[in-house]
Write a structure and sequence with these properties.
about 325 residues; mainly alpha; 13 helices; about 55% helix; binds tryptophan
């Protein structure tokens, strides 16, 4: 059960479709590793996703999909408060209040906005305001740490700035969160030797079926260094001790097919239990949805208490 003495961790996950092993080793796994140490709030950032995904069926399926993904890798709802952003109306409510103290020039310095502008995109207010919603996500729960990928560090710093500004304007209300940049256990190499990324189309899906794993592995570009296929090795070292692998790869110099078969089997050994666990949850969607709903009820208690304090502080509370 949750203990009061534990430090609080909070992070949000975008429901953006099928994860790959790069996502797993780069980010997802950490939440599982940290769930015993921290009182954890992990939520699905579905309102954030809405700014780029205007396909209701897809958003709906992605929300359930990401929930299944995280339950399958071992996020334990007994330990973690797992919920979705849109269930807690306080997130958007607090966003508005923050909107009234954050200036446009300040938000114009955010990377995401600058990138969109540089690409000459027509920028919707949601995209512009993205960091403010994220600040509300964070500050409602007074977390000590917010583990994020390097690309999100600025957003956590914006949340700190907003907290400071609010505190200065209306009196001490929000705790300043620390961004914790997830030590990328591995920057996972994709099948073409570049960083594994959906946009590079070089991924191995985390819940791939055996045949799919095989196909991905056989498709690895065997760029070799004196008979050692570097890209095969780079992926393989996530699943086996590196010293042991060095020995094996030396013995099998030039035997690319054999090494790939071995990697396929190692991947299957790692993926199969996760895949089966995901399927088990998938067969019981009502239970999975109950987990999400109950997580939301717990989160709501915390958020609504904070929001009450905020309403009082800004002066709209009259009853
Ligand atoms: N923007 C984050 C991402 O794209 C997701 C996110 C939304 C988040 N709200 C958050 C992360 C609050 C940490 C804290 O990955």
């Amino acid at each position: 059960m949750l203990s009061m003495s534990k430090k609080v961790l909070l992070s949000g996950i975008q429901p953006s479709g099928k994860p790959h092993i790069g996502n797993y080793f780069g980010a997802m796994k950490q939440f599982v590793d940290l769930q015993d140490k921290y009182e954890s709030y992990i939520f699905i950032a579905d309102y954030h996703a809405l700014h780029s995904l205007r396909d209701p069926k897809k958003l709906h399926d992605n929300i359930i999909g990401v929930l299944l993904d995280y339950l399958a890798i071992g996020l334990n709802p007994e330990k973690v408060i797992l919920y979705k952003q849109s269930d807690i109306s306080e997130h958007t409510e607090l966003t508005w209040i923050f909107d009234t103290i954050v200036t446009m020039p300040y938000l114009m310095r955010a990377h995401a906005f600058k990138d969109a502008k540089a690409k000459n995109k027509e920028i919707d207010v949601g995209t512009f305001n993205y960091p403010v919603l994220m600040a509300a996500d964070i500050l409602l729960y007074s977390p000590d740490i917010v583990p994020v990928g390097a690309d999100q560090k600025q957003h956590v710093e914006i949340a700190r700035d907003i907290a400071e500004k609010f505190n200065k304007t209306f009196g001490e209300s929000f705790k300043l969160p620390e961004p914790v940049i997830l030590k990328e256990v591995a920057t996972v190499t994709g099948v073409d030797g570049r960083k594994m990324s959906k946009s590079h189309n070089n991924t191995i899906p985390l819940f791939a079926e055996y045949e799919e794993i095989k196909k991905c592995v056989m498709g690895i570009i065997t760029d070799s260094d004196e008979g050692i296929p570097k890209n095969v090795f780079a992926i393989h070292k996530l699943f086996r001790d590196e010293a042991e692998l060095n020995k094996i790869y030396k013995e099998k110099t030039g035997k690319y097919k054999e090494l790939k078969e071995m990697l396929t089997e190692d991947l299957e050994k790692f993926i199969a239990p996760l895949r089966e666990k995901r399927k088990k949850f998938e067969r019981d969607i009502p239970r999975v949805l109950t987990i999400l709903k109950e997580g939301g009820e717990k989160a709501k208690k915390v958020a609504s208490k904070k929001m009450e304090e905020v309403r009082k502080k800004v002066g709209v509370q009259v009853y």
